Amino acid sequence: MKKNLVFAQSGGPTSVINATCYGIITEAKKHGLKVFASKYGIEGILKDNLIDATEISDRDLNILRYSPSAAFGSCRYKLKDGDFEKICEIFEKYRIGYFLYIGGNDSMDTAHRLSEYVINTGRDIKVIGLPKTIDNDLTNTYCCPGYGSAAKFVATSVREMALDADVYDKEAVTIVEVMGRDSGFLTAASALARDEVVDAPHLIYLPEVPFEEDVFLSDVERVFRKKGKVFITTSEGIKDKSGNYPYLRDGKCDAFGNMQMGGVSRYLEHLVRENITKRVKVIEFSIIQRSAAHIASLVDNQVATMVGKVGVEKILNGTSDVMISIEKTDTGFEAGTVPLAKVANYTKSIPIEWIDQQNRWVTQDAIEYMLPLIQGQVDIPYENGLPKYIRFI
Amino acid sequence: MKKNLVFAQSGGPTSVINATCYGIITEAKKHGLKVFASKYGIEGILKDNLIDATEISDRDLNILRYSPSAAFGSCRYKLKDGDFEKICEIFEKYRIGYFLYIGGNDSMDTAHRLSEYVINTGRDIKVIGLPKTIDNDLTNTYCCPGYGSAAKFVATSVREMALDADVYDKEAVTIVEVMGRDSGFLTAASALARDEVVDAPHLIYLPEVPFEEDVFLSDVERVFRKKGKVFITTSEGIKDKSGNYPYLRDGKCDAFGNMQMGGVSRYLEHLVRENITKRVKVIEFSIIQRSAAHIASLVDNQVATMVGKVGVEKILNGTSDVMISIEKTDTGFEAGTVPLAKVANYTKSIPIEWIDQQNRWVTQDAIEYMLPLIQGQVDIPYENGLPKYIRFI
């Protein structure tokens, strides 16, 4: 009896997870495979909450391809030991022989553990992980789907806001906070905003470089004296030499409300306001940066689609316990595989030699790494003047 | 001797001011007119800081048309009595016979006063105001250039973020803060995000309706009980019955940092966190909403261009002391004129009958008013995967 496939998505949404789902569904349909989508990630399997994705119309599939967020829902649930058997029971109920798990490094660990469990219990279920994260921090892959689109939004918006910030003949400091707790790839993408018209950002703060208050203030002071305007981008995850978030130190930030991630820009604002100028403005991209599908990168969308398609091809060929990786070729991108054990729980940071610590900037190598990932505009369907999106939850 | 034209821009930037400048320059060139642009608004005239805009190449003009912010700079300077004579002296130096002033209601007042001054001092200088504001609050015009593009960004981003906010099977309250101190048009545009897929926003708070804490909390509670998820959009300018900003009251918000505009979403977050759920997220659009030219409305860009073009036509015909207004026709938009005195210092709010106070929503009339303004996508030039922009400051 023919086996079925199920996919699930885990962790934070991106603008192109749904392109991966589109790739999975369309490729699986070619092979006459029945595809189930698990609602709200792996929790949907545990709760027996699956839907038949093969029934989605071609029209809706085309909308799905360009929709942000996770159209079947996601979760941040870490599997417990007892969950694996429960999952296998549901797999049995739906005659699942193939499981594709879209996520970041935690999810790859989950997929790896599940893969080991099915082997140890003598089941013939193939498991493949599909990469996804705006942080771009998975190892053994050139890049991660989701990053290119978030990077394109960050670079575009920084360029636009830099023009706005310069509009008055007055001093101004602008601080933009970008997602990325441990990896600065997304913040680094702000460097792409600079061209012969826009010289912002002037200073980029990455979690890969220990943050020091006095160095920060002297950086800002230097640019401020020279230009009268300073445009700063910072990762939400900058840490001091001890690896602590500087804005959580000694109750220094009582004035900034709740002590959760996202406080860094208010902390830097406070430093600038107290020491340099009161004319300081803060922008937090928050969830806009991972959901702005209207400015998604075409390349990112295509790579995300490819990852889903190749995932189906490989799993049908009997490949298991791997993540689909992305390789850069002379003409574009190709999919490969990497053992899940080599990806699970590891985190990739920006190579330190790509960071120009002196100038709070990134090197040409970093620019050349990022540029191919933001190329091209998606041709999303519009209705009544707005992008038309879809979801199935 | 042929007279020259000068234009200046005032107040906050938008995504389509530069389209108006494009309209002015291209139309003026057709008439063989020399066009000066004043740098940093009217201050550029006072400081003798003009540039010859007729020398801008066709390539750069096409980039200018789609660039956000104010490519020649802006100011927030209120003219003093002594400034008028100084302006006239500079006009004489550059043989200016025509002055176009792009701005909001303050700027229209300035233009009107200047117009009276030149008449009173026996000079033959024509003055026309060109509307511009994302707030859409100028009277005697169907709409204001800049609004449609900001509205399109707000609606698009709210739709995208609403998909993101729903992705987990967990309770969540999302609060989005939109610009607009006295007029709720831009916040109301968030209503356009709702379609048969996205039901957000659930609650819209406008400055036109007095804000009451207890009513707000019972609104949120009601939606929260029903859906488990609440998506709120609020104007930065909501006020209580006495016309005061609720978050500035009685030092209640000491915990929220500086007491400047932009504090409302943190205040609402605090209310929800203390009374309903800790799972609350805040997004402030800040300057992104007025500079996101990559998602500008084509209609808005065309109307802004028309306003510049017609401004030149009218002023060359001897028309003065008027603002170019916009009229809706069956097929699109046309330009008209309205005396500056009828626009200066007046502010338009959302008609109260367009507000559904019961449901914190807007009526179908409001939707039908806004929809035509966000139609169409601009075909902006891209380079290296990013929108290519220009400025001349």
Summarize the structure.
Two copies of one chain form a homodimer. With 393 residues, chain A is α/β, with parallel strands linked by helices.
Task: Describe the protein in words.
2 copies of one chain form a homodimer. By secondary structure, chain A is α/β, with parallel strands linked by helices. Chain A has 2 domains: 4-134 and 141-146 and 295-346 and 375-387, Rossmann fold (3-Layer(aba) Sandwich); 147-291, 3-Layer(aba) Sandwich (Rossmann fold), CATH 3.40.50.460. The first copy, chain A, is built from 12 helices and 15 strands. A 7-stranded mixed beta sheet of chain A has the order 3-2-1-4-5-10-11, sandwiched between helices. In chain A, helix 1 (17-30) packs antiparallel against helix 3 and helix 1 (17-30) packs across helix 11. The longest helix of chain A has 19 residues, at 147-165. Chain A is elongated. Mean pLDDT of chain A is 95; it is low at 251-262. Chains A and B meet through helix 6, helix 9, strand 9, helix 10 and strand 14 of A and helix 6, helix 9, strand 9, helix 10 and strand 14 of B.
